[in-house]
Amino acid sequence: MNGSSGELFQRGIELLEKGDCLSALSAFEKSLATNGYTAACQSYISFLKATERGQLNAAISELEDLAGKAPDEPAVYLNLGKLYLKAGRKSQAIETFRKGLGCGKMPEAIRVLEQLGTRKPPVFRFLSRDHFLNKYSGKLLKKLGLR
Questions:
Q1: In the 3-class helix/strand/coil scheme, how is 80-133 assigned residue by residue?
Q2: For the chain, how many structural domains are there in total?
Q3: In this structure, are residues 104 and 74 in contact, taking their beta carbons and an 8 Å threshold?
Q4: Which residue in 47, 98, 103, 145 has its CB near the most CB atoms, within 10 A?
Q5: Residue from 99, 147, 89, 101 nearest 121 by CA
């Protein structure tokens, strides 16, 4: 794979979108070697290590550290949010995607947030969401068209 670091980075994103994760990982690693360190490139490498090599917790830790070092890089938040989802940490994922959207455009994060949907607040906020009064009151209000 020849080309500049920017071309290698774009190629990595294209390969990732096509589902060719191993080739994408290779492209990102070559981009990092060619251009030197960038937070966006490192975030994709960490994400792919988690998905391809099963290093989920290590990758989450890396990306959390990276978010502290590069708080204005949307790709870091995108990849961290996707890993939170893989780990079953949905509320953290949503919060992370939203934080990333504050840094810049991320169509993929918007798409994921739309798929996840948002929940309305519980009818009785002083009770837990799982409390039977909240469950059945919400269902009743929805049937009546008031919610």
A1: HHHHHHHCCCHHHHHHHHHHHHCCCCCHHHHHHHHHHCCCCCCCCCCCCCCCHH
A2: 2
A3: yes
A4: 47
A5: 147
Domain around 59: 5-119
Same domain, 128 and 64: no
Taking only the tens place, the pLDDT of each residue in 98-138 is 899 888 888 888 888 888 876 778 899 999 988 999 999 99
Do 145 and 73 fall within a single domain?
Answer: no
Q: pLDDT for 34-45, tens place per residue?
A: 877 789 999 999
- Name the amino acid, one letter, at 24: A
Residue carrying structure tokens 């949010």 = 81
| Encoded amino acid at 60, one letter | I
Q: How far is CA 8 from the centre of its chain?
A: 22
Q: Domain check: are 114 and 43 in the same one?
A: yes
Q: 136, 127 in Cβ contact below 8 A? A: no
69 and 137, same domain (yes or no) = no
